[in-house]
Write a structure and sequence with these properties.
Layout: H1 16-32, H2 44-51, H3 56-60, H4 63-72, H5 74-103, E1 108-112, H6 119-122, E2 130-135, H7 137-149, E3 157-162, H8 169-175, E4 184-188, H9 197-209, E5 216-220, H10 227-244, H11 265-270, E6 274-280, H12 281-287, E7 306-312
Parallel strand pairs: 1-2, 1-4, 2-3, 4-5
Antiparallel strand pairs: 5-7, 6-7
The structure holds S-adenosylmethionine (SAM).
Amino acid sequence: MSSLRSHDDTWDIKTSVGSTAVMVAAARAVETERPDALIRDPYAKLLVGNSGANVLWEKMLDPAIVARVEAIDADSAAHLHHMRSYQAVRTHFFDAYFNDAVAAGIRQVVILASGLDSRAYRLDWPAGTTVYEIDQPQVLEFKSTTLAENGVTPSADRREVAIDLRQDWPAALREAGFDPGAPTAWLAEGLLMYLPADAQDRLFAQISELSAPGSRVSAETAPAHAEERRQQMRERFKKVADEIGLEETIDVGELMYRDDDRAHVADWLNDHGWRAQSQAAVDEMRRLNRWIEGVPFADDKGAFSDFVTAERV
Ligand SMILES: C[S@@+](CC[C@H](N)C(=O)[O-])C[C@H]1O[C@@H](n2cnc3c(N)ncnc32)[C@H](O)[C@@H]1O
């Protein structure tokens, strides 16, 4: 297990796993400002700016800094471009997943480990949709307070379920009003890599128990970077960061669980009453013209996630 993690660790938006929510929101903020943006997250910049988190990845997404990185090390710059494109493609994929789910009549949504995901505010939910967001208390509190203070209101009936997903979250979800008899659309995006393999299995077993016929689930799988390559990339980043005077506060890779025996999500779901499909993120990036040529590790298939979607049968 990573030395930075323990079975009952907690965090706020500035620390540990909480700060990874800032990192991915920063990528959405940068994407939103592109003229050819794949997605629009008008609240990402506001949330990142108010977070107070000192995340190296977030700073490195700043286009001015990316340009400096390009001048120092082409591989590190390609990696940053990849990271930004990947986040845009991932957000685009799961936005479409929710649009399809509500078009099919689903009105109950659960976003697991919602972090700074602003879908409950920015998507065009049909009347009568309830969006439950589960994350650690301080993370949810930061998001809802910051958005409320800036006059941003949810576009659905948004309900917070402030609990760790390693605790009895199904009970907390029911207490918040969740109806296990109604079909649900679930999402686990940017989560599985922060859970040990057994907690991942337990999570999907709990989701399955709460899923009425017609429910859907979607997930981004945990990547499995080859350790040696990861170490190489970390050293290069550190060198670049030192050269441009950025301080690394946390190694995100060290927050993840790299369990070799982790179940493949689509296989697990297919074996437990779901009909699942898996889409390689790399293929989705190519389809949307967002694959970055020259990205290090391109030949290391395990380094890239899949996007899994499934329907309860
Ligand atoms: C990389 S962020 C992803 C946030 C969001 N899903 C997105 O894509 O923007 C990881 C999030 O997972 C949450 N998280 C990780 N492990 C968790 C756990 N055991 N219980 C609750 N939340 C967890 C963190 O608090 C953080 O908000």
